[in-house]
Amino acid sequence: MNNPFRYLSALCVNLFLPWIGYHLAFPHWGYIGGLVASAVPLLVWIAWDLGRLRHFDALSAVVLAGIALSLVAAVLVSRSEMRIVGDPMIFGMIGVAFLLSLLLPRPMVYYLARSTLARESKNGAIRFERRWREWPELVGLIRRLTVVWGIGLIAQNLARGWISLTWTNSQSASIASELLRYGGYGALMLWTLVDRRLYRRSVHRGTGGLDDDTRS
Asked: Domain span at residue 76?
């Protein structure tokens, strides 16, 4: 049986805490300080996971990598307008990477899903790999999620880039951009949870309820 707290904690750590950290730090330390503050909950979560479960959270790592690249761009680029535009460009490229990973035997969402199941149970990753080989429905789900995340990240960051280039008030543009960033992540994660639940119900009906691991 799934533990709802696991999904709530993932949403909190990967979305709400970084968002809160950014907005608490931004008025005092600006854009770079806000990015650093948004990375703190992710670093703590990854360290906690490694120490407690000997497990590396792939989703947190993807979000943290995007923040790290944004920090690098902010340090290297002097103009504040280009810093803000560079951030959605980086996250948009992550969306492109999702779509390009469809050309590989295992797309990016495969590794994110495997990481999540490794936290669920001791043998979760092993069971996931076995089902990947045996269940075409799971392959379809993973590839569909990869497409949605790729397109979603690209669309979200195109909108953020447009705001950064066209809004005259830089502070309002930065706040709106961050709202789009974390709102977009929230929508993608919510869609993922709903789609996964529908998939589990479909598989559960198909197996006649004989496989406990497919229960939602």
From this structure: 4-214
Which single residue is written with the structure tokens 């004989």? 210
Can you give the three-state secondary structure of 40-97, one letter per residue? HHHHHHHHHHHHHHCCCCHHHHHHHHHHHHHHHHHHHCCCHHHHHHHHHHHHHHHHHH
- Smallest Cα–Cα separation from 191: which of 11, 3, 48? 11
Residue 36 tokens, joined: 């650093």
Model confidence at 83, pLDDT cuts 50, 70, 90, reads low
Give the whole-angstrom CA distance, residue 156 versus residue 117.
27
Distance (Å, rounded) from C-alpha 205 to C-alpha 209? Answer: 6
Q: How far from the centroid of its chain's Cα atoms is residue 62's Cα?
A: 6
At residue 46, what is the residue type?
Answer: I
- Could you give the number of structural domains in the chain? 1
Residue 153 pLDDT > 80: yes
